[in-house]
Amino acid sequence: MPSSWSGPVQTLNHFIATLPLLVWRAGRDGAWLWASPQWERFTGQSEADYVGDGWLDVIHPDDREAAQSTWSLASDRQSFEVEFRIRKADEGRYYWHQTRAGPVYDDDGSIIEWLGTSTDIDDLKRLRDQERSLLGELQHRVRNTLGVVRALSRRTADHCDSIEEFVLKFDGRINTFARTQSLSTRSATGQVNLADLVRDELFSHHLYADDQVSAEGPDIMLGVKAANMLGLAIHELASHAVTFGNPGDPPPRLQVRWGIDDSTPRPLLTLVWKEEGRNLADPEEALGALARDFVERALHYEMDAETAIEVLPAGLMFDVRLPLARAQDRDS
């Protein structure tokens, strides 16, 4: 090497050594000739290890075929780009890299070697995977949401005698569904705390915790489907409590209790709604005014729940028991 080149070469080597990239040179056939210090530090390979095809030893086994096949087409390209995983020596873990290479030509225009870089894109790759996962979850939720809205619309219309009645009842049920979705999106797991669900529904009907209203139970996280079903049931019970009866009647005393019954082979989620102080002179009329599709039947058919409802002159009693695993299932 002419002495006049030593300065520029040293400067170039120093520049390459500061790049946040793995830099390398290869012959026209893909056999490696040289790699930068970054490659040696990252992979733990020495020059004797990586020359020729030795660099493939630190490529993930599932990616080696793709890495090798790239070189079989390289002679027909002006440059190429490929992604594969490279093992980091001090961790033993593979990191995704994007490898780009371009040819070096002689005076006749023939390729004499390749210069390439491998850039760490592991974080970007993971973000892309998360983005795809989140998009899939969003699409799933949108489909489920539309399905719930359609079902609410049909089931509400089946039991309404006028447009005005439909609008009033459908609006209340959609608002309940929206509150449940809001609770779900605030949770890192997408689940809903049953305590929050109960209290939100009571508050929405102006049934506040005081001497008249009591809501107690442990924190139990529900899957979205169970939360929707229970939320609608509680909405119907609360709506019935504040709207059915004689004008001027005092508000009922209300107790809502929930918990886990682990005395059975399958632990059960239990919830009891108990009213007192109402004046239900005609229990059959009171029962007929309750939207039992949402209080009993939906829970039974959708969540494999056991339900019992009793109408006494003093008020309603409702008991639901459903498999805890089913209630907490995040995928249902």
UniProtKB/TrEMBL annotation:
It comes from the Bacteria. Residues 80-133 form the PAC domain. It catalyses: ATP + protein L-histidine = ADP + protein N-phospho-L-histidine. CDD domains: PAS. Keywords: ATP-binding, Chromophore, Flavoprotein, FMN, Kinase, Nucleotide-binding, Phosphoprotein, Photoreceptor protein, Receptor, Repeat, Sensory transduction, Transferase, Virulence. Its EC number is 2.7.13.3. Residues 8-78 form the PAS domain. It is an enzyme of class 2 (transferase). This is histidine kinase. It comes from Blastomonas natatoria. InterPro entries: PAC, PAS, PAS-assoc_C, PAS-like_dom_sf, PAS_fold_3, Sig_transdc_His_kinase_HWE. GO terms for molecular function: ATP binding; photoreceptor activity; protein histidine kinase activity.
